[in-house]
Design goal:
- With 225 residues, the protein is an alpha+beta fold.
- Helices cover 54% and strands 8% of the residues.
- The chain is built from eight helices and four strands; from the N terminus they run βαβββααααααα.
- Strands 2-1-3-4 form a four-stranded mixed beta sheet, covered by helices on one side.
- Helix 3 (87-116) packs parallel to helix 7.
- The two termini are 31 Å apart.
- The structure holds glutathione.
- Glutathione is lined by residues 7, 16-18, 40, 53-55, 66-68.
Length: 225
């Protein structure tokens, strides 16, 4: 039995890009799991894993924290349908999404994010994200960020665009972990915000639609703002 500790917002929204990576990786393997929703203030639920963040996976006797480690664990424990056929490529996409794409999206949806946490988590998120941004005027910060930030994000996606001009998925003819990494990143704003990040004629938009269709529309059907 696999248990996934997934970050939960108000109305059971599940925006975490890293938790999405783990859920999509489990789906790719055809594995089912027990869902354990956790708020920001419920870190005691993952204390057994010495984790301060979600996702955490408890698989039999194995406890794994961090989405990258979870993907590697799944490939080691369930070798059918590899998630990471090319480690260097997947690691590059992981680092690119974490350091270039996620930080480009965060300012664009930060007010939507703060608004949608569980009420009990509000004070924590205002303090922690306020410290990160240097202001608690999240609406003002988000509005200003959107003026140039959407175009900047689209420009930052160019490496993916170049791959997706030649093939349907970042991983080739079929999706694998590099696709789940970037797609998880898009599910984060999709879950929290009405803001459209991509133009319809962008090949990245077409790819995102294909990803939304995977696993019988698993991600498409998830609750969103
Ligand atoms: N490197 C970690 C990052 C996980 C992470 O930062 N998760 C966020 C949610 S998106 C979290 O749990 N944050 C807890 C907090 O901010 O208190 C991974 O890949 O799993």
């Amino acid at each position: 039995m696999i248990t996934l500790y997934d970050l939960a917002f108000d109305k059971d929204l599940r925006p975490s890009p890293y938790c999405w990576r783990a859920k999509l990786a489990l789906k790719h393997k055809g594995l089912s799991w027990r869902d354990e929703p956790c708020g920001f203030g419920e870190k005691q639920k993952v204390a057994f894993a010495q984790s301060q963040t979600y996702p955490v996976v408890h698989d039999g006797t194995k406890v794994v924290k961090d989405s990258w480690a979870i993907a590697q664990h799944l490939d080691a424990a369930y070798p059918d349908k590899p998630l990471i056929p090319d480690r260097s490529y997947a690691q590059f996409v992981n680092g690119w999404a974490d350091t270039a794409i996620n930080p480009a999206i965060f300012p664009l949806v930060v007010a939507d994010l703060v608004e949608r946490v569980r009420p009990v988590d509000r004070a924590y998120i205002v303090e922690s994200r306020g410290k990160r941004l240097g202001t608690t005027d999240f609406a003002g910060f988000q509005a200003k960020a959107r003026e140039k930030g959407v175009a900047a994000l689209r420009a930052a996606l160019e490496p993916a665009r170049r791959v997706l001009k030649d093939q349907p998925f970042l991983s080739g003819q079929a999706p694998a972990y590099p696709d789940y990494i970037l797609f998880g990143t898009f599910l984060w704003p999709r879950t929290l915000s009405k803001l459209e990040l991509l133009e319809k004629d962008d090949v990245v938009h077409g790819w995102r639609e294909r990803m939304l269709d995977l696993f019988d529309g698993f991600a498409r059907g998830a609750p969103a703002a």
